Amino acid sequence: MSEGWVRSTRQFRGESSGGIGSAGYRDGGSGGIASPRYSGVNTGILDEQVLSLVFRSINFDPQALCTAASVSRRLRAVTERVLWRELCISRAPRMVAALTAASGAGRGVGPPPGRIGGGWPALAKMLSFCCGAAATTVPVPGHITKVSRFSKTSGRSFLPRRCRGDLLYVSDPCEHAVPGADDDDLGAYRGVFRWFMRSRTRACLLGRQAALDPRVRCPYCGARVWNMVVARLVPRGAARRMGSDEGRLEYYVCVSGHVHGTCWLAHLTSSDGDHHAHGDEDGHAAP
Predict the structure, then answer these.
(1) Are 27 and 122 in contact (CB under 8 A)?
(2) For the chain, what percentages of helix, strand and coil (3-state, to nearest 5) are there?
(3) 3-state secondary structure at position 121
(4) Which of 11, 127, 200, 267 has its CB 3.0 to 4.6 Å from that of 163, i.e. a possible disulfide?
C-alpha cells in the first residue's frame, strides 16, 4: 500500500487538517462550487468532463477521489470544485435535488445555484462515511460505508413540533458491536438539514440561547455543534425511529446543519415489523 494512498485515506477519514471533513474545504466565495483556496490553480484545465467520466466509471469511489486529490494542487482543486459534487449527485440524486431546491414562500432564498449548505465535500463524506462514536467507553472507529439510506421520514422524527417546516434527512443507524456493552449494539446515524441557517431549528436554538458543546466537533466539516439533548429539542419519536429506548440517544447538530449521533439499539423480536416508511427515502449504493 503506497504512502500517498494511506495519506489520502487518512484525509478522508478526517485524521488530518486537509481531509474533506475539515473546515478548509467549505464553500468559498463567489467563484462557484466549493471555490478552492488556491488562486489560479484551475486556469487552463479543460478535461474536467473527462475526469468526471473516468470517476463515474468507478462509481466515484471516495478512496480513489482522495488519492487523485493528493497527486497535485490542480487535481485537488478539480476534486474539490467538481468531483465531490458529482459523487453526491451520483449517490443520492433525489436527496441532492431536495437540498438544493428553491425555498418555500416567505422563507427567503437558499444558497446560490450549485452551492449547498456546509459544502459539497462535507456532504460527500457524509454519504460515504460513518463517523462511529468517540464518546463511548470503548470508542467505535469510523469507516467507509457501502450502502446507506437517508430518509425525510426519519428526519421528521427528529424535528420538534414547532420545527416541522424544516427539511432534514437522517440515515438509518449503522450498527456496531461494542465489547463489554451487555450485548447491546450501538447505532451511529448522520444527517443534514436543508438551509440550516434559515431553519426553525436554528431559530429555536438561538431563541433558547443554547450553548455550543465545548468538547464535540462535527465529524464532517469540523464546525462546532449544539447538543440537542442538553437543549431539550429531541422529540420522543426520535429514539423510537432509530429503534432505541428513550434516554439512550445522543443528537448533535453543527452550525452548518450536519447531524450526527448515536443510540443504543433495542433488541427486537421476530414479530416486530419494519418501522421504516418508504417512498421518500434516497438511498445510495457503492459496490
Answers:
(1) no
(2) 30, 20, 45
(3) helix
(4) 200
CB–CB of 77/38 below 8 Å?
yes
**Residue 264 pairs with which residues in a beta bridge?**
186
User: ∠228-213-218 over CA atoms, to 5°?
Assistant: 85
Query: What tens digit of pLDDT does each residue of 56-106 get?
Result: 888 888 888 888 888 888 888 888 888 999 999 999 999 999 998 865 444
β-bridge partners, 260? 190, 252
Q: Residues with Cβ < 8 Å from 53, sequence gap 6 or more?
A: none
Residues 225, 255 contacting (CB under 8 angstroms): yes
Assigned C-alpha cell, 28 = 468559498
Question: What whole-number distance in Å separates Cα of residue 212 and Cα of residue 70?
Answer: 33
pLDDT of residue 111: 58
What's the predicted TM-score (pTM) here? 0.75
Averaged pLDDT for residues 159-163: 94
Q: Is the pLDDT of residue 10 over 80?
A: no
| Residue 5 in grid coordinates | 494512498
CA distances from 136 to 110, 145, 212, 262, 265 (A): 37, 21, 20, 9, 14
Euclidean distance between CA atoms 201 and 79, whole angstroms: 32
Distances (CA, A) of 98 to 101, 124, 194: 5, 16, 8
The CA distance from 287 to 280, in Å, is: 22
Q: Are 213 and 227 in contact (CB under 8 A)?
A: yes
